[in-house]
Write a structure and sequence with these properties.
Low-confidence stretches: none
Mean pLDDT: 90
Shape: elongated
Largest sheet: 3 strands, mixed
Oligomer: single chain
Number of helices: 8
Distance between the termini: 52 Å
Strand content: 15-25%
Number of strands: 8
Order of helices and strands: HEEEHHHHEEEHEEHH
């Protein structure tokens, strides 16, 4: 049995009543699941609501469980909820100890799809080494570099600090893409290694003022922005 199951059900029942204004309450099934991180799901099937919460939340205070109940039920029915619930949940979720548990779960349970760093046109290892010398005095540590499995236009690059990996969209591995744009995307992800995200007022900040200032140190910044705009506007 889920610890505090009756109290958890009470929170979700209250959220359901307040958000939907309905009196016919569906059966609510709640379980904790070993997600790879701080993830939660909620769905309806056969007039029953199924909730799976990250096991990292098992020992969270009751008021945090209540906030999460309102967040998930609001998401399920596409209803806006009060910011106090979001703030309360974020304050708990972004606590350093909770983030440590989440990172550990990602590392132990998550699977990172790793391909090759050598593309048809560009070698990510060579780009990383060159940029590390030019902008970071070769002080950034080695990381796993890989081209993405798909040609994503929405996400051109991603730094995963949990798995020490930088993924670059395979869309950029083309003779039609200028090398300075590939360098700029890689440089941007390398800056995430230097400027780790910070939590400010319950929100995680990835691109601080210091980050943006360093980003503009890229030698071909203006040209890279022009090339980026051209690429992303292409149909």
């Amino acid at each position: 049995m889920v610890p505090g199951e009756s109290l958890l059900k009470m929170h979700f029942t209250e959220a359901f009543r307040q958000i939907t204004r309905r009196t016919d309450l569906p059966e609510i099934n709640i379980s904790f699941y070993q997600f790879a991180g701080l993830n939660h799901t909620i769905r309806i099937r056969n007039q029953r609501i199924y909730v799976r919460l990250s096991d990292i939340m098992r020992d969270a205070p009751s008021q945090v469980h209540r906030a999460l109940a309102f967040i998930l039920v609001g998401k399920l029915f596409n209803k806006r909820i009060g910011t106090e619930y979001q703030n309360l949940y974020r304050q708990y979720a972004y606590h350093p100890e909770v983030q440590r548990q989440s990172d550990l779960a990602k590392r132990q349970r998550g699977r990172k799809q790793i391909g090759s760093s050598v593309g048809r046109e560009f070698n990510l290892d060579q780009l990383y080494a060159r940029l590390n010398r030019r902008y970071f005095n070769s002080e950034l540590p080695p990381v796993t570099l890989t081209w993405s499995a798909r040609k994503s236009k929405r996400i051109l690059g991603h730094h995963d600090y949990v798995h020490d990996t930088i993924v670059i969209s395979r869309l950029l591995d083309s003779a039609e893409v200028p090398e300075l744009l590939v360098e700029f995307v890689m440089y941007h992800e390398m800056l995430h290694m230097k400027h780790r995200p910070r939590v400010v007022n319950g929100r995680r900040i990835y691109h601080s003022a210091a980050f943006r200032a360093d980003e503009k140190r890229f030698e071909y910044y203006d040209a890279a922005q022009t090339a980026l705009d051209k690429l992303t506007s292409r149909k």
